[in-house]
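Interim report to the steering committee. The following record documents the input for ABC transporter substrate-binding protein (329 residues).
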Amino acid sequence: MKKWLLYLCVALLIVLPLSACSQEKVETINLAEVTHSIFYAPLYVAMAEGFFEEEGLDVKLTTTWGGDKTMTALLSDGADIALVGSETSIYVHAQGSNDPIINFAQLTQTDGTFLVSREKIDDFEWEQLKDSTFLGQRKGGMPQMVGEFVLKEHGIDPQTDLELIQNVDFANIPSAFASGTGDFVQLFEPTASIFEKEGTGHIVASFGTESGKVPYTTFMSKQSFLDENEEAAKKFTTAIYKAQQWVQEKSVKEIAESIAPQFEDTELELIETVVQRYKEQGSFATDPILDVEEWENLQNIMDEAGELPMRVDHETLVNTSFAEEVSSK
């Protein structure tokens, strides 16, 4: 009996430290996303295909519905990392933050919204928006700024040539259009395609193809978090890069099947249609590097919309060290 107890004690001495080490290797990351969209397919692929797990990370995802709410979550430590438009980091910087918000990995590189018309239009021309009611996105947010930028590129003044509605909360824009507000609306997927299938609206143009490359949504965090969790940030970026490469290599069907559990109420065929749209217009970034040209294009769009509080150098709010390191392997 004593011999058996001795063996048990020895076994516990061996197993318990190993168990503790195993637990230490898994780090929880609280991630807040600004909306839940097929536009963020590489993120969901990283979760579904186990790329975060391979890096020893347990990512807890929360949808915070809107740039202001997402940034509030990050600033109040309700999230470790936020997936949101890069413009939000500039707004925080302009307010004089002592702990700047740093963009460290890019997920999408074009606008992800589509112009949806209430009536079916076979040969759409941008001029048809004149004298219409346009249900836009939140003022100061990336979707709205890109929307106004594209309208101006087509000779439309969003303030005088149409009735621009901007006072609807981000999460309520689809339901507002469905209930009869607006002749046109700017929507993310899969909502745009769902509306088209239901006959609620019709996709007539893509803001992504019209606006060019821009760091539309990036992963960002407080400087203090990155300083204190450098290894975790690098592992997170590695998992995202693996997913970006996976998305580039796999078929639309394979991508759709991977992310389908994130969109249980959306038919697989519809998910495939949306993924195809985003792949064709190059919305999914092929690596997590946010370069200087994209950063400047972002600020040009903000400036055109009258929402740029100040010009900020790329190196001030962008850290590409993690992205460059994992992309070079």
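The chain is about 45% helix and 15% strand. The committee is asked to note this result when reviewing the revised timeline.
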